Amino acid sequence: MSFHLDYLLALPGVRVETCTQVEGKIFLGLSISSEGIVCHHCNNPTEKLHQNRPILVRDLSVFGRPVYLKIPRRQFYCPFCQRYPTEKLDFLDVKRRHTQRYEQDIYERVKQSSMEQIGREEGLSYDEIKGIFEQVNTLKIKPNWQRVKRIGLDEISMRSCQGNFVTVVSDLGEGNLIEMIDSHRCEEIIEVLIEQPIEVRKQVEEVSVDMWGGFPKVIKKVFPNAKVIIDRFHVMKVVNKDLNKLRRAAGITDRQSKYLLLSNRVNLNQDQIDKLEVTLGKSGCLRIAYEMKEKFREIYETNLTIQKGQNKIKEWLNHAQVFFREAASTIENHFEGICNYFLHRTTSGVMEGINNRIKLIMRQGYGFSNFNNFRNRVLACFSD
Ligand SMILES: [Zn+2]
Fold it and tell me: What's the whole-model pTM score?
């Protein structure tokens, strides 16, 4: 009908023949420019039209009004292979009732907002929005494992998830999420990770974890060249736990003292340091233990070779047996992994932000029908 509408529509291989408006909706009747198609069974051309049943397809809105395209769906007869190929259009995926660009638009908007909100804006049901989101997602999600050298493994608790725990796999170099697994059991984690090609897994040099028992086993099996790094923040947590016990044993129960004792001294202002001094004045043991805690943190802060790091920690352990019995035995048990930190000073620091973002998406409560859809959505949010 009109050159202008073809131009505005900007879809390849079609012309606008009619344009009508019904109840605030715009309907464009399209025709297809080509006479025939190439048979996708045998790659021969055919122009023998078998049947033509138009379908109604939603497209991007214009002037605030929903647009529907009436598109001929042509089925041909192929004389070469005697089959009946249906035409495939570049802007429409098989069996979909929305143009690709419409689905793409919905997808991007859902990521910024919520399925409920976009559903209201577009006059689509929740299930329709969800269907579109999952459709685009499955075409999109390919976690990027290329060039990953340092990985962080962590488990987070998800109350609304069936298994309660998910394992989060992050690329520590890029600060990005690369996989999410519906389990915290070794066997199941291995099963998922081992799907990556061995060349990809071999290039992983370090995997940073906490001291939970299972991960080193996973690492050994999945990443044959990787060194286990026990994340320094988890080690500090263990040390602080013993210090906190001593605080309670010394009868110091106020919250502020707890905060001051467990904080890094470098982060305190003069006023806080003065208050800390008062607290430490109440117990000689607590003061010694506090200094040891700070000493341990200084080891981490100093730029040491792995050999020197090992020596410093051994030295610390020699004095730690009295006040830090539990911490000392944990550190001894994970000595190698803890000292591997000094190789490249790798930490899981970026994982905290990643975990928080995942929990936020979880809390937004989209009611994912299964874990896979949730995983896809989370990975999509991290993929750009
Ligand atoms: Zn054919």
Answer: 0.66
The β-bridge partners of 30 are 16
pLDDT band at 162 (very low <50, low <70, confident <90, very high): low
Q: How far is the centre of ligand 1, averaged over its atoms, from the C-alpha of 87 (Å)? A: 12
Q: What is the pLDDT of residues 295-327, one digit of tens each?
A: 999 999 998 899 999 999 999 999 998 899 999
Burial of 127 (0-12, 13-18, 19+ CB in 10 A): exposed
Distance 51 CA to ligand 1 centre (A): 16
Question: Ligand 1: distance of its center to the CA of 55 in Å?
Answer: 24
What is the distance in A from the centroid of ligand 1 to the CA of 85? Answer: 7
Q: How close is the Cα of 128 to the center of ligand 1, in Å?
A: 34
**Contacts within 8 Å (CB) and 24+ apart, 81-84:** 81/39, 81/41, 81/42, 81/44, 83/39, 83/41, 83/42, 84/50
In 100-230, the DSSP E strands lie at 150-157, 165-171, 176-181, 206-209, 227-230
CA 80 to ligand 1 centroid distance, Å: 5
Angstrom distance (rounded) from CA 106 to CA 95: 18
Give residue 46 CA to ligand 1 midpoint distance, Å: 8
pLDDT tens-digit map of 102-112 = 999 999 899 88
Q: What is the pLDDT of residues 231-286, one digit of tens each?
A: 999 999 999 999 999 999 999 999 999 999 999 999 999 999 999 999 999 999 99
